[in-house]
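User: Run a structure prediction on this.
Assistant: Running it now.
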Amino acid sequence: MAGRSSRTAHSVAVLMGGPSAEHEVSLSSGRECANALRVAGYDVTEIVLQKARGQDLAGLLRDAAPDVVFNALHGRWGEDGCVQGLLEWLDLPYTHSGVLASALAMDKSRAKDAFRAAGLPVVESVIADACEVRRRHVIPPPYVVKPNDEGSSVGVYIVHDGANQPPDLSPDMPDRVMVETYAPGRELTTTVMGDRALDVTEILTEGWYDYAAKYTMGGSRHMIPAQIPDEIRAACLDLALRAHKALGCKGLTRTDFRWDEARGLAGLIILEVNTQPGMTPTSLAPEQAAHQGIDFPALMRWMVEDALCRS
């Protein structure tokens, strides 16, 4: 697979599915991306990975022999540096971030360390045993409990101010979890495309922006551009680009914020960076690109050609 002379991609393999908790979302993203890539003129092979491990992905990729791999996997294994390492070993150009940036972004604790080192605003947090979190408040309420290495608000618990009891975590939560100070305020997000921050969207929901709100039609409303002061909009664009760079990200990312407007600029904090944002009909990154005049097939083309240029 090494030694390509052409710098133009003609064939693209789209990876989707996989063993993580976000399997179904990945399938939706992958199919949408595959369809848009065909509209953009590419020869597309869809590679669907099952939830159970054991498929010969290297063999499937060798058979497909694509010019570029479009990684539409989400969550563990597909987004945490594992599949990126395989693609590096196969010498295949691929979309989104590389091994280290992917691993850092998926590990929320280490990502926060990188953000703090870059002077970016984050809330305080600790990593604790899940059994201890079930037994007592490990930090004063209000706080949030989440897996340290999952995305899409999978397994998130909010413990409100004044709560008498610690959270009754599900048995399928990992043995070690992140517990972080609850950040009140409005939900904002900014997409970074290469070296350019696109816009700021406000996410409006009836409650927490959880998995269902993200991926169910009507589960949330997106206000683009967000109706926020110019100072906050400029800060979101700046912080998203700085967070992207702090982790060493490439291609497309999306940075999520909470903004407590009562505190002004001091109330803006980074929640996390998504190295492989969702590409479903309700997803935020394609909406922001479209608002900037970049339709979905054009966005897919940019991602593929960007991946090839970086190889």
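Residues 107 and 150 are 8 Å apart (CA to CA).
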